Amino acid sequence: MATPSAPVRTPARAPGRPFGRRSSRLVLGLVSAIALAGCITGQRPSFLDDQPVATETGNEPIDDVLERLDSVGLAEFTADYEILTKLGNRTSTARVVHAPTDRWSVTINDVRFIDGSVQAATCDLASAECQASIDDARISDIGVTHRFYAPDFARRLRVDANRRIGEPVGYSITAAGMPALCVDVPVSGGTKVYCAIEAGPLALYDGNDVNIALTSYSDVPDETAFETS
User: Fold this and answer.
1) Does the pTM of the predicted model rise above 0.85?
2) CA end-to-end span of the chain, whole Å?
3) For every one of its 229 residues, what pLDDT tens digit does the chain have, with 9 covering 90 and above?
4) Kind and range of the H or E element at 202?
5) What is the distance between the alpha carbons of residues 27 and 91, in angstroms, rounded to a whole number?
6) Are 47 and 32 in contact, with CB atoms under 8 Å apart?
7) CA distance 99 to 76
8) Cα–Cα distance, 214 to 6 (Å, whole number)
9) How many angstroms separate the CA atoms of 81 and 204, rounded?
10) Is residue 170 within 8 Å of 13, Cβ to Cβ?
11) Residue 166 has what DSSP assignment?
């Protein structure tokens, strides 16, 4: 994993210039059911199946970031992250891969979640043992789920949009060499930071519970991330 570098923050947009692409909003209602082979029978949901239809909040800086997070299912990429769990000051590494034919792999420390064309599994890379389902309980001590890279934090941002106690502030940063849009959302207890790169993945999140930082990004999917050991 690459060593994370501090995001470079740049001033907010110039007056009169739109903050983000506002020509259209992506509505994600992706539903797919793929037959499983081997030890897995019946149908299993895609990582994106249970996402709600994307909705705007009415606040432009928030909606600009949400537009990117909601579009993540359309991209192919490999993204590396560092996750700091603030309770206990624990640092974890993660790799998220979206490959062609809607195949996903999310690896957090030694736990790998795979949603492939013929299988869904949670694997312990150290022991090379897998179970035929997605089991977020394996990483419950980290404070995130396998969907941290966009879907979960799009939900969080919508919740915080309703809980905000002040005006959100939009701006740009550079994270892992990638330009990103950000919004600071003041809520009770502090200000939360949400950032996303143009392709959709989370670039930065900072809250009371965790800090998630993008450390490297490539538009080439890492096929080795679908191995089970």
Assistant:
1) no
2) 17
3) 444 455 556 554 433 333 344 434 433 333 333 333 333 333 344 444 444 456 889 999 999 999 999 999 999 999 999 999 999 999 999 999 999 988 999 999 999 999 976 779 999 999 999 999 999 999 999 999 999 999 999 999 999 999 999 999 999 999 999 999 999 999 999 999 999 999 999 999 999 999 999 999 999 999 999 998 8
4) strand 202-206
5) 34
6) no
7) 5
8) 10
9) 9
10) yes
11) S
Q: Identity (one letter) of the amino acid at 64?
A: D
* Euclidean distance between CA atoms 127 and 169, whole angstroms: 46
Residues listed for the chain: 229
CA dihedral of residues 209, 215, 219, 224 (deg, nearest 10)? -90
User: Residue 15, SS3?
Assistant: coil
Neighbour-count burial of 152, counting CB atoms closer than 10 A to its CB (0-12 exposed, 13-18 middle, 19+ buried): middle
